[in-house]
Structure formats: structure tokens, C-alpha cells
Amino acid sequence: MNYSITEDIQWYRACMITDVPENGGVCVKYKDEQIALFHFARRGEWYASQNLCPHRRQMTISRGMIGSQGGEPKVACPLHKKTFSLIDGRCLSDEEGCGIKTYPVKVIDQYVYIGIVDDKDSSQAICA
Fold first, then answer.
1. Cβ of 89: how many Cβ atoms within 10 Å?
2. Over the stretch 37-58, which tens digit does the pLDDT of each residue have?
3. Global confidence as pTM
């Protein structure tokens, strides 16, 4: 599921940049949501997505391995190794696979902010 940015974004200060390992991820809690936050240091970029695996329905995406596929940043779920785009959340390893929700990220003065749109229709992607 792609999380489109069409409404006003509220920037949530998630953590300091030193709280996230280089080329790795952490889980950040925002209200009732768990968000996977990644510092892709090799690319000099930050990404955020839902932490819920859409297939196994477990909070594991933040522990996945990050890399690139065709120049596009991706994360592999540690449970079943399906890969998801960190740009738009689509499943890269399965044509009919479910995607994940993604969030915009910015860094200001050593703090990492995640963009949140309070939209009740933007629930986390789940596969049956």
C-alpha cells in the first residue's frame, strides 16, 4: 500500500540520529502504530515504513536487511525474505504481493522526524 502525501503532514520527532544504527533499522512507536525507521548510510538517506509484516502479521520489518534492487532502496522481511521498496512500499519480490505503508522522513538538527498524516483510511497493509 502506498502512503500518499496529499494532506497536511504532522512531523513527529522520533529520535536522535545516533539512536538508529547505520545501515540498519529501529522500531518507533507513534500512538498505536509501530513504524520501522531506517538509516541507509551507504546512500545517505532515511526511510520509514510500517513495522507490521503484511504476510505474517508480526512486527518485524524494522529488523529486516536493507539493500538496493536496480538502484531502488529496499528492505527484506526477516521472516520470509519478501522485499519491499522503501520509496513507495510496493512488494518487489512478488508480482501479486502486498505492499507496506511508507512515511516521509527528514532530519533537522540531529533529530529524525517522521511525517504523519492522520488519515483513518491509511491503515497498514495486511495480506490475507
1. 22
2. 999 999 999 999 999 999 888 9
3. 0.86
**Cell numbers 532515511 correspond to what residue?**
46
* Contact status, residue 122 vs residue 10, Cβ threshold 8 Å: no
Q: C-alpha cell of 27?
A: 522500531
Cell 536496480 identifies what position?
70
Residue spans of beta strands (DSSP E) within 51-116: 65-69, 72-76, 83-85, 102-103, 105-108, 111-116
Backbone angles phi, psi at 27, to 5 degrees: -100, 130
**Alpha-carbon gap, residue 38 to 64, rounded angstroms:** 10
For residue 20, give the nearest of 97, 112, 99, 95 by alpha carbon.
112
Distances (CA, A) of 16 to 26, 30, 36, 91: 12, 15, 15, 29
Distances (CA, A) of 110 to 16, 20, 36, 61: 6, 11, 18, 24
The tens digit of pLDDT for each residue in 74-83 reads 999 999 889 9
d(CA 26, CA 110): 16
